Amino acid sequence: MRRPTWLGAAAARVIVAAGVLACAWPMLGALDSPAAPAERQQEQQRSVLTARVDEQITPIVADHLVDGVRRAEDERHQAFLVELDTPGGLSTSMREIVQTFLGAEVPVIVHVSPSGARAASAGALIGFSAHTLAMAPGTSIGAATPVDLQGGEITDKVINDAAAFAESVARERGRSVEFAEAAVREGRAVAAEQAVRMNVADLMAADRSALFAALDGRTVTLADSTAVTLRTQGAPVVNHEMGLFTRILQTLADPNLAFLFISLGSLAAIYELATPGAGLGGVIGAVLLILGFAALSVLPVNVAGILLLVLAVALLVAEIFTPGIGVFAGGGAIALGVSGLFLFDRPLTVDPAVLWPVAVAVGAGTVLAGRLALRARRAEPVSGESAMAGQETVVRDARDERGRARVEGTWWNVRSRSGPLSDGQRVRVVDVQDLTLLVEPVDEEEQ
Fold first, then answer.
1. Neighbours of 330 (CB within 10 A)
2. Element (H, E) at 81
3. Which run of H or E residues covers position 159?
4. In angstroms, rounded to a whole number, what is the distance separating the alpha carbons of residues 29 and 26?
5. Which of 31, 132, 213, 386 would you label with 162, given CA atoms 20 to 30 Å apart?
6. What are the beta bridge partners of residue 402?
7. What is the SS3 assignment for 433?
8. Cα distance between residue 81 and residue 67, in whole Å
9. Contact 51, 64 (CB under 8 A)
10. Domain 44-244 classified CATH 3.90.226.10?
11. Are strands 140-142 and 118-120 parallel, antiparallel or unpaired?
């Protein structure tokens, strides 16, 4: 019985259709695939990269914010938001941040927040350099006069330079040049409401959601004259956070910690030199010195301070080798204290409440270490070759004047100075020469 011809034709059509679909599927996928990356790219372009700064402006913070701008540019975020609360910091680090913000190819927003926060000193100029400066209620900005925490007088040259820089930044962003100058020359600071009225800040926003609502639709002009309209309402946020190692460096970026680690590390190493033993002092000293030098690597140091620090350590070590009435230790303590005054560039300095007690403690500890070293050198040896003299042992494997004997748990070659030796003979060690014990027989009366 023959099958109907229509059934074969239908089957052929199904097979052909399936083949066409199989061939066309990759092309359909290729046409559809760009849509997903395009949507992801559009979503990423709407996102805002956010960093939080609530500490002093240090080289670590500067690197973090500079990296944030570069990341926002590379990943095509629509803006870089810095939530700021700082008392100020290093002028060099502040200038690096300001230069990066002024030349950024992505809108930079600085939000002085939360309530009670401040953008003081270096923080004020960082705020001036942002494309948009927002402040939460109850915050303040200003007081940008250069300071000398060591009590010295700031020269007019330094103030004029800082004022000119603040004015140029404010003029570049269209902010109040008069306030920028007064903030530097007179130390003037204003609250958020007054800052907005004086054209120092652009707007007030209590929190991030209020800030995004206020920024939505605002247009900013970048360094290359490109106008960018922000679409921040409901925009996703990507956090730009410090890594663990960077956070450790930021914690160590404290002049007091750096001075404390180096001083105590040096004292621990000196005790290891004075009383070598288990090595605990050396280990502790090495760890503290590494932490101290890590802190120095991220802080602006002065050559004079480093030289005084080296001199202080040299004098302290000299006390160990030539202990006396503590002259070297006293000189080392004075040099250590003076080095703390000159170790860091202004405005960073070591707190006197840390500086002088630590210097005195290190000096006194070194005097004690010198006494311990002197006592150890004068003590009778309890081990080693010199301690073997006078010990008695029994000769084994005797051959004429030579043989072997066990002393302090170790087999030694022995040689008689007064005639042949015999197995089992009791002898006394009188000297050590070229890893051979020189012995003499023990009289029977002495036994």
1. 17
2. strand 79-84
3. helix 156-172
4. 5
5. 132
6. 399, 415
7. strand
8. 13
9. yes
10. yes
11. parallel
HEC secondary structure over 37-97: HHHHHHHHHHCEEEEEECCCECHHHHHHHHHHHHHHHHCCCCEEEEEECECCECHHHHHHH
pLDDT in tens, the chain (447 residues): 334 433 343 334 434 344 444 444 444 344 333 434 444 444 445 899 999 999 889 889 999 999 999 999 999 999 999 999 999 988 889 999 999 999 999 999 999 999 999 999 999 999 999 999 999 999 999 999 886 544 445 678 889 999 999 999 999 999 999 999 999 999 999 999 999 999 999 999 999 999 999 999 999 999 889 999 999 999 999 999 988 887 887 778 788 999 999 999 998 888 888 776 656 778 888 999 998 888 887 787 888 889 999 999 999 988 888 776 788 889 999 999 999 988 887 667 888 898 999 999 998 988 888 887 777 666 555 555 566 777 888 888 888 888 999 887 788 888 888 888 888 888 888 888 877 888 888 875 454
> How is the chain split among helix, strand and coil, in percent rounded to 5?
50, 20, 30
The conformation of residue 146, written as its DSSP 8-state character, comes to: -
| Cα–Cα distance, 55 to 118 (Å, whole number) | 11
Determine the residue type at 298.
Answer: V
Q: Please check whether residue 112 is in contact with residue 134, taking contact to mean a CB–CB distance below 8 angstroms.
A: yes
Terminal CA-CA length for the chain: 129
Structure tokens at 91: 């002028």
What pTM value is reported for the model? Answer: 0.65
Residue 114: half-sphere exposure toward Cβ, Cα within 13 Å: 2
Amino acid in the structure at residue 230: L
Residues 6+ apart with CB under 8 A from 300: 59, 90, 92, 344, 345, 348
> Which homologous superfamily is 385-441 in?
Nucleic acid-binding proteins (2.40.50.140)
